[in-house]
Write a structure and sequence with these properties.
Blueprint (H helix, E strand, L loop, with lengths): L1 E8 L2 H10 L5 E8 L17 E7 L8 H18 L5 E3 L3 E5 L5 E13 L4 E10 L15 H5 L4 H16 L7 H9 L6 E6 L2 E11 L3 E6 L2 E5 L3 E4 L2
Parallel strand pairs: 1-2
Antiparallel strand pairs: 2-3, 3-7, 4-5, 5-6, 6-7, 8-9, 8-12, 9-10, 10-11
The structure holds biotin.
Biotin binds next to helix 1, strand 3, strand 6 and strand 7.
């Protein structure tokens, strides 16, 4: 990837989308600080100086329906990079990277915001917005969030991002078997086996998370049998 670096930008995803629309390829937009960071479900994303805020542009020759697997792959890639620096990160479905800070509390270390444009049978561009609370104080983050600094101290952000991008390429590059992403995801998941409550666009699904299914749905055992959830906000109930 070519790196387009900004000390400060509104949102790396916005810039990456712009470049993608212009036809630019193989680029990752990176910033030290974002002033208008965006999260999933139209939320704001706090992105103070010191984080890893990065948005690679991908052009996979795959159907838009398979895009969720790329988002899971990004979460796996971040988890691997975190484990490289000694942080026992896990993944909450679909793509929140969590850390147990030692007090039994699971806090959010990283999140992924995927945006894409596609035709009927093929993705035109895909932006995987990766936000890792790296060298930032926990006080600068919302409640329930943590950072690499809080967990293990500051890291070399360039190396950390390099690790993420390499893992992402291993998992999703042209020769990769996308279904293998699910095995890697299962290995790191903290959601499987747990009681969950998922707020979906079509109502709440509560039960025990039993598996993840291609291209990324969560299978939940409910009182009315198994349900596959494609999108939503997942809470670990216990
Ligand atoms: C979430 O968990 O809600 C997703 C957060 C994604 C944040 C990243 S930081 C880099 C990229 N640019 C943005 O504005 N958002 C994503």
């Amino acid at each position: 990837y070519d790196v387009e670096y900004h000390d400060r930008i509104g949102s790396t995803n916005d810039r990456a989308r712009e470049l993608a629309e212009e036809g630019v390829d193989d680029v990752v937009v990176v910033a030290d600080e974002q002033t208008g960071g965006r999260g999933r479900l139209d939320r704001e994303w706090a992105a103070p100086a010191g984080g890893v805020w990065a948005s690679p542009v991908l052009r996979p020759e795959r159907p838009p329906a398979e895009v969720p697997i790329y988002t899971l792959a990004a979460a796996v890639a971040v988890t691997r990079a975190a484990r490289e620096v000694g942080v026992e990160a896990t993944i909450k479905w679909p793509n929140d990277v969590l850390v147990n800070d030692g007090d039994g509390e699971e806090r959010k270390l990283a999140g992924i915001l995927t945006e894409m444009e596609g035709e009927a049978d093929r993705v035109s561009w895909l932006v995987l917005g990766i936000g890792v609370n790296a060298n930032v104080d926990r006080d600068a983050l919302p409640p329930g969030a943590t950072s690499l600094r809080a967990a293990v101290g500051d890291v070399d952000r360039r190396r950390f991002l390099q690790g993420i991008l390499e893992a992402l390429y291993d998992l999703t590059g042209a020769d990769a078997d996308l279904r293998a992403v699910l095995d890697a995801w299962r290995e790191y998941a903290s959601t499987l086996g747990r009681q969950v409550r998922v707020e979906t666009p079509r109502g709440t699904v509560a039960g025990r998370a039993v598996d993840v299914r291609f291209p990324g749905s969560l299978v939940v055992g409910t009182d009315d049998g198994e349900r596959a959830v494609h999108a939503g906000d997942c809470e670990h109930v216990r």
